[in-house]
Amino acid sequence: MAWTVAGIAGIWVAVPLISIFAPDMVSGSEQEHLPVAAFGTWFWGVVATGLFLWAMGRLRGSGSRQPIWIGLAVATLTVWLVATILAITLPVFETGSDPTQIPVAAVVSPIAAAALTGLAGVIAGVFSRPPQSVEPAPRRAGPGAALM
Q1: Looking at residues 10-28, what average pLDDT do you find?
Q2: End-to-end CA distance of the chain
Q3: Which of 65-69, 79-83, 103-107 has the lowest mean pLDDT?
């Protein structure tokens, strides 16, 4: 349970940090500020939480999978830490004569973090399944067996 809580906490510590500290979009002749990161980050945090819980739910139940669910939690924490740092620190894109400032990283980082959280869950699910051996087909006896 601790690793599940850690992964969820990592997501939900990153969401308000991105929402509060990411640069605003500045546009118009009066240079109006619009906190675009605050609008979308919450949605992508919910998506990432759902994907993380879905993946953890599939991994739980067997003690042999403990390293995999620890790895999933660590991967989720790392992804959201990097997304937070990038969203807050990367420069904004300036365009136009007024100039309009667009914080691309503040918009894209939470989307990428949610997608990578889902991808980490899928990869953890693949690693949790043991390889299945392929058994040869039984040999047929009889007159047609020599032809096969």
Answers
A1: 90
A2: 54
A3: 65-69
